[in-house]
Batch of 4 targets.
Target 1
Amino acid sequence: MIRRVRILHQPPRQDAPTILVALIMALILFALPEPDLAFALQVKGLQSPQSFVADSARDQYFISNINGDPEVKNNNGFITKLDQNGKVVQQRFIQGGEDGIVLHAPKGMAIVKGILYVADLDAVRGFDTKTGRAIHTISFTRHQGSTEATSLADVAHDGDGILYASDTQDNTIYRIDTRRQHAISVLVRDASLAGPRGLTVHPRSGRLIVVSWDKGKILEVDAKGTITVLVSNSFFSSRFHNLDGVDFDKWGNMYVSDFTAGKVWRMRPDRRFHVIAEYLSTPADIGVDRAKHLILVPYLYANTAEMNGLESPVKSKKRKRTLRDYGFPFQRPGSEAQEP
């Protein structure tokens, strides 16, 4: 669960209840880890952040910033780079319009062997994660019978050389073979995709997971393009609105962001759903750092992003939870809970 703590400062009162509250707060603060050890922070100063991904190979993070109209080619988009602690290394690590870089309205991202692939309207662009240098431009304009792919929303990697890209307006999922000079083919084009938005590959099955913007569906697509509906709204229930991002943690839990409803959902492997955060301001294309068990949430209209620790499963219902179960990597000496 995402942990949020708000401390309200009020004028001191010299009475017993106030003293008791102060003592309780002191005990709570003593129990918490040092601030530099707790992964629960906010990234400010962004411009329409759409996607937030972890680069586990280099222990760093990237945030795509649309910085303008999401459907206009203004060459004004940029990518923010963060270090392993979530500190901004370079606000405009990759900047459209500078040093020969073309980047209009960057949205979803995926990292493959040191290359940051970015969905950018009618192209997927590849950049060196170390230098920011432009390496690839994969154009989708009028490709494979499409009227014109101008709304690429996300990209995902299968871990074996294949990239997938979603075109929301054209109800299309593309397949890109990075081993064959980025050859493009249509995996599936079907109205039942209902505005495909966020993409991820299931870490166990290897199948593509798609969330839909138009009808709030969660879909699975196999290697032949066959669509299976995993979850959808029913006549009696409209749980989801406009789904934007999707990712998995290392235990196989799925996380989905609902842009309009302002919620982040978790679906366990047994298909049970839980809201882990709500009343959020436009959560967009979320990511999960599986190594550190953190959820990465960009807030498009709030111009901020957050990194928060996720609750991890416990082997025994009797075991007391520790701070490690909520995304804090270290404990104070002697504070580790013992199995009964």
Target 2
Amino acid sequence: MPGDWLLRRRPQGFSAVRYHSLVFPLLLGAGKRLFSARARAKETQKLTLVEHEAYANGLRKNVFDVVR
């Protein structure tokens, strides 16, 4: 199941307190947008980076808190 599946199909009125994301390095092709331009304009959330880590294989871990 792709990670964006959960974000795109969350229940109406659902609001997360924290987002955990893993970013994989991309060698070929194009990345996939998690939010469309329409969704970004409609429901903007301010996030604060609270934790991050980079691994030797290029993987990055990011943890964001939602600013209320």
Target 3
Amino acid sequence: MATLSPKRRRLDNRHNRFDFFDIYKLWQIRFMTSFIMVSCNAYCLSSVFYMFFYSQQVCLSVALESILSCTFLENG
């Protein structure tokens, strides 16, 4: 079994630590991008739902207004 010299072992340790740091940075970047994407998607979905419910409310109010005006015209 071959043993590594102290200098070689030091280089290997530094290389392993560098790999770990790279993986950590990649994970951090991936987490940040996924967080940004999720927040953007949530904002888009909330705005779409807001527009949908607002349009439904407008349609309901217009429909109620037309029904009320029709009943008032029939009764009047």
Target 4
Amino acid sequence: MPTRVVDYLVQAVSDMGVRHIFGVDGANIEDLYDAAYDASDRITAVVAKHEFAAATMADGYARTTAGLGVVCATSGGGAMNLVAGLAESHASRIPVLALVGQAPTDLEGKGAFQDSSGRAGTFDAAELFDTISLYCARVETPASLPAHLSRAVAAARAGGPAVLLLPKDIQQAELVAGRFVAPRPVHGRDDAGIERLLEGLRAARAVGKVVIIAGAQVARDDARDQLRDLAAVLDAGVGVAPDAKDVYDCTEHGFLGVAGSMGHTELADALRGSALCLLVGTRMPVTARAGLEAVLGASTASVGGEPPYVSAVHATSTDLATTLRELTSELKSGAGRGIPVVRAGRRIHYRCRPRTDRACGIAISSKHSTAHCIPIPMSSPTRAIPAHRWCITSAHRATAASSSPSAWAAWATLSAPPSAPVSPAGTATTVASGAPWSWPATAPSTCTAWRFTPRSSTGCR
């Protein structure tokens, strides 16, 4: 059954879950408002005082609903007024669909009211919007609308504005087409990078505090709940980028405040004592990283749609809700479990975080490791201990526990280490093939912990 193009558009955005559209009425967009009025039981057309305001309303709608923002404007000056708002959506990767009216096709270049076709000396709306949108197309025929709309929605959902230019006569024309089916989101994911990130989170959780800085992609991907769950399983402190103040409730456990030039000192203090800083859905622009550059160093990891501006080990994910959920699940299920290692054709299980003397003795094969006696400054134990490879001697476990109980809670007390000579502090000894682990009866005063460095592929990953 034929339907007007404008009715098709309103039905399509309504079917995608959009409940409000924003704009300013005008001669070359009034038909769309007419269609929205007819569908007022499903969608509300909000009339703004200025198109810039309408564009920012659509931007805000997309940010708060994790859906698609829709803005409507007429041609000429109305279209020009959208530029600043859409440019912000482009810079912030916000999905906004702009429906922009144009003069009737038979009057283009012939003195039409608010002509922006680029003909006969008029400005070209397509060129104007092309630089601030991920997709911009002029709908030349009613039959071409479904394809253009599908491409525009797909582009906007990838993170940014999309623009459809709609001549008035095309809006009024009839279209025979089935119900619009929005394209399925296409998500990018770096599986290897996410696996490395998981390993890093496990390691950091074992030796110290994880601090998360969350950004606006958490809101765009509707991943607030998943962020909270990840923070809980890591017992992490959480700060937020200036443009993401709504992604983590300030009353939640572990909230550290806002990052950046007008941020909170608690976040910087927490980063200085952390084992790992995890950036979630933020690129850390200057406004977010100001004052933190000195503490955002080698121990920074990132997950999100784009790599951050700071140095970090990055894992790509354009679907943070799913990725954070999977990380949380793996961290829950993997707590305290052995990591399988293949050696010489057989599978061996050992624990990277031993909880008993015996477990420490079998944690790393004596045939394939080197023991180092490493002095660790008690003033900053979590920064001094690399992940995975430590067994703490009983003589120094008590000292460490008294100065920083939380940092050492995961490590075993070695109550009765066997007595045997081990090389002095600062040197290394290769344990002979087949020999048992050897410990000094009394740890040297300069030695705080023994570090076991795996040889070949036999150690903790």
